[in-house]
Automatic annotation (TrEMBL):
<feature type="transmembrane region" description="Helical">
    <location>
        <begin position="155"/>
        <end position="178"/>
    </location>
</feature>
<keyword id="KW-1133">Transmembrane helix</keyword>
<keyword id="KW-0813">Transport</keyword>
<keyword id="KW-0472">Membrane</keyword>
<feature type="transmembrane region" description="Helical">
    <location>
        <begin position="37"/>
        <end position="63"/>
    </location>
</feature>
<dbReference type="Pfam" id="PF01925">
    <property type="entry name" value="TauE"/>
</dbReference>
<feature type="transmembrane region" description="Helical">
    <location>
        <begin position="100"/>
        <end position="120"/>
    </location>
</feature>
<dbReference type="InterPro" id="IPR052017">
    <property type="entry name" value="TSUP"/>
</dbReference>
<protein>
    <recommendedName>
        <fullName>Probable membrane transporter protein</fullName>
    </recommendedName>
</protein>
<feature type="transmembrane region" description="Helical">
    <location>
        <begin position="75"/>
        <end position="94"/>
    </location>
</feature>
<feature type="transmembrane region" description="Helical">
    <location>
        <begin position="198"/>
        <end position="217"/>
    </location>
</feature>
<keyword id="KW-0812">Transmembrane</keyword>
<dbReference type="GO" id="GO:0005886">
    <property type="term" value="C:plasma membrane"/>
</dbReference>
<keyword id="KW-1003">Cell membrane</keyword>
<dbReference type="InterPro" id="IPR002781">
    <property type="entry name" value="TM_pro_TauE-like"/>
</dbReference>
<feature type="transmembrane region" description="Helical">
    <location>
        <begin position="229"/>
        <end position="245"/>
    </location>
</feature>
<comment type="similarity">
    <text>Belongs to the 4-toluene sulfonate uptake permease (TSUP) (TC 2.A.102) family.</text>
</comment>
Length: 253
């Protein structure tokens, strides 16, 4: 049961604002960083159901900034089918998957990916496109975004080595998660079934979205290419550590 206390409203508003700011600055994929805040005042499944419709609202605002000129169509073409299939698989297996093991494996792969980047001198290494890798990345992202709202790492591991311009990277990830969030909204609502209190809390959080996306977009404009990529890699570390904590603490509980 969700209680609409002042603390719940404040924490939820702050979490939605943070998610929106990251969406405006980097295009998407780091929603999990805001979820720990909501988990302070509600259980994770309730938080997932609350956030699913708000993600769609964030997408609509973000489209104002990340226009079609910032979308990498050659990459989205193979990524999106994998994403949709992955979300479907994630929904079908939601009650059977060991979320803890998935979180630990994804965290380990992400940390290894970032570690290799540091070993290479923290520079962008350009690699050619690969349709099989893109489909696999979309599939992995779809499953993890459905299970844990954490589809960012698989997508980033495919897109970052391509060396896309910072605006194209952000715009491509933004459209990718626009499709993903629209696809998973209904499954999450079926799984979580928000109460009247949850819908009221969603409405109260809506003003945080345009403010957060706008501020993030302004931040994006102040960062150069290398700074943007370094920030994304840094956020991947934070995401991976959060996933690792979720997985390990789940086994210890």
């Amino acid at each position: 049961m969700l209680d609409l206390t002042a603390a719940t409203i404040l924490v939820a508003f702050a979490g939605v604002f943070l998610i929106s700011l990251l969406r405006g600055a980097f295009g998407g994929g780091f929603a999990i960083i805001g979820i720990p805040l909501l988990s302070l005042v509600m259980d994770p499944v309730t938080a997932g159901g609350l956030l699913a419709p708000l993600f769609v609202a964030t997408d609509l605002v973000a489209l104002r900034y990340w226009k079609p000129s910032t979308w990498s169509r050659p990459d989205l073409l193979p990524l999106l089918p994998g994403l949709v299939v992955g979300i479907g698989l994630g929904y079908l297996l939601f009650t059977h998957l060991d979320h803890r093991a998935i979180a630990i494996v994804m965290a380990a792969v992400t940390l290894a990916f970032v570690g290799l980047w540091f070993v290479a001198g923290a520079q962008v290494t350009i690699r050619p496109r690969s349709t099989p890798k893109a489909v696999a990345a979309g599939l992995a992202s779809g499953m993890t975004t459905m299970v844990a709202h954490s589809g960012g790492p698989p997508l980033a591991m495919y897109l970052l080595p391509l060396g896309l311009g910072k605006a194209v990277y952000a715009g491509t990830t933004s459209l990718f998660f626009t499709v993903g969030n629209a696809t998973k909204a209904l499954p999450w609502l079926l799984l979580a079934q928000p109460t009247a209190e949850a819908w009221t809390l969603m409405a109260l959080c809506l003003p945080a979205i345009p403010a957060g996306v706008w501020l993030g977009w302004r931040l994006h404009g102040r960062l150069d290419q290398l700074q943007t990529y370094r920030a994304v890699y840094g956020l991947l570390v934070v995401t991976a550590l959060k996933l690792l904590w979720d997985g390990v603490s789940g086994y210890l509980a």
